Amino acid sequence: MRILFIGCVVYSKVILEHLLNENYEIVGVLTKDDTGFNADYFDISSIALKNNIPFLKTKNVNEEHILSWVKSLNADVTYCFGWNSLIGSDFISLIPRGVIGYHPASLPQNRGRHPIIWALVLGLKETASTFFMIGEGADDGDIVSQNKIPILEEDSSATLYDKLIESSKSQVIMFTNQLIDNSLVPIKQDHSASNVWRKRSKVDGKIDFRMSSRSIYNLVRALTKPYPGATVVSDGNEFVVWKVSIAETSLVNLEPGKVLAANENKYLVKCGLSTDAVLIEEHDFSNNISVGSYFI
């Protein structure tokens, strides 16, 4: 099975290395230079160089010179794992067994952007590691493999990312072997059950202390590393918060955003509900935040 591999993030790196370690034939690699778009960017051309695999870098796999190069590889299948632009029909037509993509969500539900972040922001208890056949639509092709992944209270974007990788490593071996022995039977998605998550913006990462402590906890754990972090504003300065825990206070008559206590560089802050508070445990505050001041 001759595999062309496309990707540009840490997830891509891990799965490509896993396939190579298991002695599958990678005949080409497509990746890109860092554009600042992917917080978890990784240049997988270094892996291609190490293993003497032909590679090209491009922002658009649908360009004519890329299509000519892809045709010359005679790949049986393409794995596109960790790529943020659509693959056109001209590219797909060059690959006899099709293009398989990856989406860390419970397709047909939760198509679209930032699936790890939105799952945590929304407080979902479960997501999925899903491989699917790429067509002209976004995340709507037949499902090749899907494993449900529980989301625990203590999970963050980093721990959920790791869970998805571990599941993917076994899944990709299983369906690659099924491709080899012609036993793979993809399952059509129920499009009537689908929804599409939107692209998040900078404002989506701002902590509003009128929110509940639970909502703030979910936002912070969703945006922690490898992502850019949730933000707060104090005295006109923006700072990043990496970790909070849910707390309580008996001071029900105080406004959201007020700093109630400070100890060992940790800050207890009033939230939106009557006894709600969060303890800011990890952050990048560059100046002292005084008790009685406000995050607004």
Helix and strand layout, with pairings?
Layout: E1 2-6, H1 10-21, E2 25-31, H2 45-50, E3 55-57, H3 64-73, E4 77-80, H4 89-92, E5 99-103, E6 111-112, H5 115-121, E7 126-133, E8 143-150, H6 157-180, E9 196-197, H7 213-223, E10 230-234, E11 237-248, E12 259-263, E13 266-270, E14 276-283
Parallel strand pairs: 1-2, 1-4, 2-3, 4-5, 6-9
Antiparallel strand pairs: 5-7, 7-8, 10-11, 11-14, 12-13, 13-14
Helix pairs in contact: 1-6, 5-7
CATH class of the largest domain: Alpha Beta
Order of helices and strands: EHEHEHEHEEHEEHEHEEEEE
The residue ranges in which pLDDT falls below 50 over 5 or more consecutive positions are: none
Q: What portion of residues belong to β-strands?
A: 25-35%
Structural class: alpha/beta
CATH superfamily of the largest domain: Formyl transferase, N-terminal domain
Biggest sheet strand order reads 3-2-1-4-5-7-8
Task: Name the overall outline.
Answer: elongated
Question: What is the total tally of β strands?
Answer: 14
What is the average of the pLDDT values? 95
Number of domains: 2
Q: At CATH's second level, what is the architecture of the largest domain?
A: 3-Layer(aba) Sandwich
Oligomer: single chain
Organism: Leptospira perdikensis
Domain Formyl transferase C-terminal: 201-286
Pfam families: Formyl_trans_C, Formyl_trans_N
Protein name: Formyl transferase
